[in-house]
C-alpha cells in the first residue's frame, strides 16, 4: 500500500450554550438544541456509524462542549426533545398528505418524513436517548477522537484571573472524565481564544494539544518552520495546531464555499413561516409565534427572492461532486507541501459541527462522500487525528504564541464591542468575589458548601462566550442580556448571603434546580492556593460544624479493584465528604489515571508504578508502603497535618505506623479480613508473616473497626485485643451505584434463553468463596428445575479448576463463566437474575450480598461470618450451612418455583438495605469513632 505524503485532520466543534428552563414551552431558545440534534448531531452520528459499519478507514476529531454533554444527558431535555420529534413526524405526515397533488413538493415531504423517522430510530431505538453513549462508541472504535472544550465556553483571553481560567478548564476535564472514564487528550479553546499562560493550565490537567487560528501560529516567536502545516510546542510543552486557510475557505466562505451552491437547500424558507397560521400553529411556538420547523421545500436557486423547489437527488450529486473537488484540492495541496518539507504535512480543517446539517443541509452527505473517497479513490493523503500525528512526530519546534482568536480580525473585537463591553465589569467583579469566597471558606460543609458551589455555577454560566457573541451579532439579544444579568444577579445574592451568614435553604434549592449544570462542581478550584498537588490547603475561617481532615491509606481504589476493599473505601470516603469531612486517599498506581485528582470531593493521590508485584509480592508490598509514606509526607508538607490516619488492612500497615510516629497523628485501622480466617489457620511462613503484620497494625491503632460481630470475635481472639478497642460498623451499599442507567432489550438473551431463570454468583474465584459448592448443587437443581441457568462472574486463581469441575459434573452447558465484569454489566446481571447465591466458606461480611439485595434480587447465603448476620432466614433471604450443596439446591429450587416467597424476601431485603446498610449512616458511625479517638488523644496530651 503506498505511503501517504501527508495528512488531513478534520475537526468538528460541537457546542451550544446551556439552555435549560424548568418552564416548558416558555423559551424559544430551547429550540436551538432540538434543531441541532435533528439536523446535525444525530445525522453526523449516523454518518460515522455507517462508515464504521462499512469498514471505511477514516479519522476525525470531535470536540463536545460540557454544556452540550450536560444537555444531551439531561432527562428533562431528552423527553422534551422526544416530544418535539414526535411533533415533527406528525407534521411531516400531514405534509405528505397536503402535497399529494404537487409532485415536486410531495417527494420532499416524503424525504422529511423518512428522515425524521430515521432520527427517532437512532435516538430512541438505537441509543435509548443517550447520545453521549453514541459518542463513546465512536471513540471506542478508534476512528473518532473525542476532546473537550471549556466548562461553559467562556472566552479565556478576557478573563481577569488565572483561577477563573483554571476553573473553566478543570470543570470541563472533570466532567469529561466522569462521562468518558479517561481525561481528554485535546481541547477546543472557545472561539480559539488563546493568551500566553493558558498553556500552563492545560498542561496541569493533562491536555496534550489545542487549536489556534492561522495567525495564532504564524505570528509565533520564533516563526514556525512549516507554517500551519505542523504543530508547535508552547513553552509548557502543549502542542498547538493552526487552522489551514484554504480548506476553511472552501467550506466556510459565504460567497464561494460549497454550501452556497444554488442546488443546495435554502435555509431561510421554512413552512413555519410560509404556511397558514391555523394549519401550522400546533407545530410552532406557543402564542402562534412562527419559528423554523426544519421542513423547507426550496433550493437556494440564486441571489434573488425567487426560489425553485428543492431536488434532493441533484443536491446529493452536488455533495458528491464537491467532496471529489475538495479531495482533489487536498491532493494537490499536499503534493506541493510535501515537496518542500522534510516530514509529512498535516492540514488542520476545523469547522463548527452545526454547519453540517443545520446551516448546510447536505453537509453530512458531503462528509460521508468525502471520507469514503479519501479512503478508496486516492492514496496521496490520509485522515488523521492530532494525537496520532503527535505520536508520529513527537519532536516539534518550541515557540511562544501570541494572543489570538478566530473571531473577526483575529483578536478580541467580537467579544469586546460597544454592544457587549458592559458585561466585563460585572464578570470581573464576580471573579474577584468568587476568589474571595473560596479563600475565606476553604473547607465548607452543608448548606455553605452548596451555596458556594452554586455561586461557582452561576459565575461559569455568566461567562459563556455565547452571550457576548449574540449581543455583538444582534440576534437573540434580549435573551443573551437576560441570561447574563440573571446569572450575575444570582451570584451576587449568594455572595452576600454567604458573607452575611443568612443562607436560605429553600432559595438555594431553587437555584440548584434552575441551574443544575455540573453536579460535582467544587468551588474550591477558585482558591488562590489551588494547584495540582492540593487545591485548598489552609483554614482561614471556621463557621461550620466540626470537621476532620482524614488521610486514608488503601492499596486499591477504583478503578483498581481487586476485591471489596476498593468499593468500601470509595463509598465510605465519598459519604464522609458529604458529611463535611475532608478526605485524602493515597493508593496504588493505575495505568491511565492521574497521579492526583478529586473524585466527588475526595482527594486521590496515586503512587508511581512499582514493578515486581507478580515476582515477589511481599517485597513489592514493602516498597509500596515506603512510597506511600513518602507520598503522605509530601502531601502533609503541602496541606498541613491531618487529624487522623485511617489504614485499611495489612497491606498498608507499615505506612500507617510510620506516619503515626513521624507526625504524631492518631491511627485508626479497619480490618476487612484476616489471614487466619481466609486460610482456616496459618499453614506456612508467608501466612504467619502476614498475621504478624496484621497484629502490629491492630496494636498500633487507637481503635480497630470491623464489619460484623463475627469479625469482632475473630480479631479479638487472634490478636488478643481488648473489647473496648474494637468497633463494629457494617459495610454498606449505594443503591444508585447498583442501578444501571438502562438495560438494553436484548441484554438478558446474551446469557440465557427467554424461558430460563438465572441463578447468579459474582465474586473472586477463590476456594473460600464456595463456588465449588454451587457447582455441586447444579445437577440437583436441574433435575428438579431444568430451565435454570447459572451465571458466574469473576476471576481468580481457582477459575480454571471451577470450569474443569463444571465439565466433570456434566453441567458445563448450563453454567456460563463470564470472567471479570465491569460494574455496569454486573449491575445489569444482578437485576436480570432471579436468584443470587453466595455460598462462601469464609466471609467477614459479603458486601456483594447487599448489592444483590439493592438490585431487588432474592438472595441465598451460607451461614458463615458476616453473611449470616446480614440475612435473617426466611425474612429477607435464605441461609444454608457452609458446604451443604443439597440444602443450597433445595433453596434455589424453592425460590425459582415460589415467586411469592421470592417477592416477599426481596421487599424485606430492600427495606433493610436502605434503612440499615446506608453509607450516610455508616459515615456518621465512622465519624463517631474518629471523634472518640480525637477526644482521647487530646485528653492524654497526644495531640493539642
From TrEMBL:
CDD domains: GH57N_AmyC_like (cd10792), GT4_PimA-like (cd03801). InterPro entries: 57_glycoside_trans_central, BE_C, Branching_enz_MT3115-like, Glyco_hydro/deAcase_b/a-brl, Glyco_hydro_38_N_sf, Glyco_hydro_57/38_cen_sf, Glyco_hydro_57_N, Glyco_trans_1. Residues 748-909 form the Glycosyl transferase family domain. It comes from the Bacteria. Transmembrane segments: none annotated. The keyword ATP-binding does not apply. One of its GO terms (biological process) is alpha-glucan biosynthetic process. Residues 9-402 form the Glycoside hydrolase family 57 N-terminal domain. Substrate binds at residues 243, 260, 406, 466. Residues 426-526 form the 1,4-alpha-glucan branching enzyme C-terminal domain. Coiled coil: none annotated. This is 1,4-alpha-glucan branching enzyme. It comes from Thermincola potens (strain JR).
Amino acid at each position: 500500500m503506498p505511503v501517504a505524503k501527508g495528512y488531513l485532520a478534520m475537526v468538528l466543534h460541537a457546542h451550544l450554550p446551556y439552555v435549560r428552563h424548568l418552564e416548558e414551552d416558555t423559551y424559544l431558545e430551547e429550540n436551538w438544541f432540538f434543531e441541532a440534534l435533528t439536523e446535525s448531531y444525530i445525522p453526523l452520528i449516523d454518518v460515522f456509524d455507517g462508515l464504521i459499519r462499512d469498514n471505511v478507514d477514516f479519522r476525525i476529531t470531535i470536540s463536545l462542549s460540557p454544556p452540550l454533554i450536560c444537555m444531551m444527558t439531561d432527562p428533562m431535555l431528552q423527553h422534551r426533545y422526544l416530544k418535539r420529534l414526535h411533533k415533527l413526524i406528525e407534521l411531516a405526515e400531514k405534509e405528505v398528505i397536503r402535497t399529494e397533488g404537487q409532485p415536486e413538493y410531495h417527494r420532499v415531504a416524503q424525504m422529511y418524513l423518512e428522515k425524521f423517522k430515521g432520527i427517532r430510530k437512532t435516538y430512541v431505538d438505537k441509543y435509548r436517548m443517550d447520545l453521549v453513549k453514541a459518542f463513546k462508541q465512536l471513540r471506542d472504535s478508534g476512528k473518532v477522537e473525542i476532546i473537550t472544550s471549556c466548562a461553559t465556553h467562556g472566552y479565556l483571553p478576557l478573563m481577569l484571573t488565572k483561577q477563573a481560567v483554571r476553573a473553566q478548564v478543570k470543570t470541563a476535564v472533570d466532567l469529561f472524565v466522569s462521562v468518558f472514564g479517561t481525561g481528554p487528550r485535546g481541547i477546543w479553546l472557545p472561539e480559539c481564544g488563546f493568551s500566553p499562560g493558558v498553556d500552563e493550565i492545560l498542561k496541569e490537567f493533562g491536555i496534550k494539544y489545542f487549536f489556534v487560528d492561522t495567525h495564532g501560529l504564524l505570528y509565533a516567536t520564533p516563526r514556525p518552520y512549516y507554517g500551519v502545516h505542523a504543530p508547535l510546542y508552547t513553552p509548557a510543552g502543549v502542542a498547538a495546531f493552526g487552522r489551514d486557510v484554504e480548506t476553511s475557505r472552501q467550506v466556510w466562505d459565504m460567497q464561494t464555499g460549497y454550501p452556497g451552491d444554488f442546488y443546495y437547500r435554502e435555509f431561510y424558507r421554512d413552512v413555519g413561516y410560509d404556511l397558514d397560521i391555523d394549519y401550522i400553529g400546533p407545530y410552532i411556538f406557543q402564542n402562534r409565534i412562527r419559528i423554523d420547523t426544519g421542513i423547507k421545500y426550496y433550493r437556494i436557486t440564486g441571489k434573488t427572492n425567487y426560489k425553485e423547489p428543492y431536488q434532493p437527488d441533484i443536491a446529493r450529486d452536488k455533495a458528491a461532486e464537491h467532496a471529489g473537488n475538495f479531495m482533489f484540492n487536498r491532493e494537490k495541496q499536499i503534493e506541493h507541501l510535501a515537496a518542500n518539507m522534510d516530514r509529512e504535512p498535516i492540514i488542520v480543517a476545523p469547522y463548527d459541527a452545526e454547519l453540517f446539517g443545520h446551516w448546510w443541509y447536505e453537509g453530512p452527505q458531503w462528509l460521508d462522500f468525502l471520507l469514503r473517497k479519501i479512503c478508496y479513490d486516492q492514496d496521496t493523503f490520509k485522515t488523521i487525528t492530532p494525537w496520532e500525528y503527535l505520536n508520529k512526530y513527537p519532536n516539534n519546534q518550541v515557540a511562544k504564541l501570541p494572543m489570538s482568536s478566530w473571531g473577526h480580525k483575529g483578536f478580541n473585537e467580537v467579544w469586546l464591542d460597544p454592544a457587549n463591553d458592559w458585561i466585563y465589569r460585572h464578570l470581573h467583579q464576580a471573579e474577584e468575589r468568587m476568589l474571595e469566597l473560596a479563600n475565606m471558606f476553604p473547607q465548607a460543609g452543608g448548606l455553605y458548601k452548596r451555596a458556594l458551589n452554586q455561586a461557582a455555577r452561576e459565575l461559569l454560566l455568566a461567562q459563556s462566550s455565547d452571550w457576548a457573541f449574540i449581543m455583538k451579532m444582534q440576534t437573540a439579544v434580549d435573551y443573551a442580556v437576560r441570561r447574563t444579568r440573571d446569572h450575575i444577579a444570582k451570584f451576587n445574592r449568594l455572595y452576600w448571603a454567604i458573607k452575611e451568614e443568612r443562607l436560605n435553604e429553600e432559595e438555594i434549592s431553587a437555584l440548584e434546580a434552575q441551574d443544575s449544570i455540573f453536579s460535582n462542581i467544587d468551588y474550591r478550584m477558585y482558591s488562590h492556593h489551588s494547584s495540582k498537588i492540593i487545591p485548598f490547603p489552609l483554614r482561614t475561617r471556621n463557621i461550620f460544624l466540626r470537621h476532620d481532615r482524614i488521610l486514608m491509606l488503601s492499596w486499591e481504589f477504583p478503578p483498581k479493584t481487586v476485591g471489596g476493599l476498593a468499593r468500601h473505601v470509595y463509598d465510605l470516603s465519598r459519604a464522609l465528604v458529604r458529611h463535611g469531612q475532608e478526605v485524602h486517599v493515597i493508593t496504588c498506581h493505575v495505568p491511565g489515571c492521574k497521579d492526583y485528582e478529586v473524585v466527588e470531593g475526595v482527594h486521590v493521590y496515586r503512587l508511581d508504578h512499582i514493578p515486581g508485584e507478580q515476582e515477589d509480592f511481599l517485597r513489592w508490598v514493602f516498597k509500596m508502603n515506603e512510597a506511600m509514606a513518602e507520598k503522605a509526607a509530601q502531601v502533609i508538607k503541602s496541606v498541613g497535618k491531618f487529624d487522623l490516619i485511617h489504614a485499611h488492612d495489612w497491606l498498608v500497615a507499615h505506612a500507617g505506623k510510620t506516619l503515626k510516629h513521624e507526625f504524631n497523628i492518631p491511627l485508626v485501622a479497619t480490618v476487612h479480613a484476616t489471614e487466619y480466617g481466609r486460610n482456616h489457620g496459618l499453614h506456612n511462613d508467608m501466612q504467619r508473616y502476614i498475621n504478624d503484620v496484621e497484629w502490629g497494625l491492630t496494636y498500633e491503632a487507637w481503635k480497630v473497626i470491623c464489619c460484623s460481630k463475627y469479625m469482632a470475635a475473630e480479631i479479638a481472639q487472634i490478636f488478643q485485643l481488648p473489647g473496648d478497642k474494637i468497633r463494629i460498623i457494617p459495610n454498606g451499599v449505594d443503591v444508585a451505584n447498583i442501578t444501571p442507567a438502562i438495560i438494553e432489550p436484548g441484554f438478558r438473551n446474551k446469557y440465557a434463553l427467554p424461558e430460563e431463570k438465572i441463578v447468579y454468583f459474582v465474586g473472586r474465584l477463590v476456594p473460600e468463596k464456595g463456588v465449588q459448592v454451587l457447582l455441586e448443587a447444579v445437577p440437583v437443581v436441574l433435575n428438579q428445575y431444568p430451565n435454570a441457568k447459572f451465571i458466574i462472574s469473576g476471576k481468580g486463581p481457582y477459575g480454571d479448576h471451577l470450569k474443569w469441575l463444571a465439565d466433570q459434573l456434566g453441567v458445563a452447558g448450563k453454567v456460563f463463566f463470564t470472567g471479570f465484569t465491569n460494574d455496569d454489566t454486573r449491575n445489569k446481571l444482578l437485576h436480570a437474575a432471579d436468584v443470587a447465591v453466595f455460598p462462601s466458606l469464609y466471609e467477614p461480611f459479603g458486601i456483594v450480598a447487599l448489592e444483590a439485595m439493592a438490585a431487588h434480587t432474592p438472595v441465598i447465603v451460607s451461614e458463615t461470618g458476616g453473611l449470616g448476620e446480614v440475612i435473617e432466614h426466611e425474612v429477607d433471604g435464605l441461609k444454608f450451612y457452609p458446604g451443604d450443596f443439597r440444602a443450597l439446591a433445595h433453596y434455589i429450587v424453592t425460590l425459582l418455583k415460589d415467586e411469592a416467597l421470592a417477592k416477599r424476601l426481596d421487599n424485606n431485603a430492600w427495606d433493610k438495605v436502605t434503612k440499615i446498610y446506608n453509607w450516610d449512616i455508616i459515615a456518621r458511625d465512622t465519624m463517631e469513632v474518629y471523634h472518640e479517638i480525637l477526644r482521647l488523644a487530646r485528653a492524654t496530651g497526644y495531640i493539642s
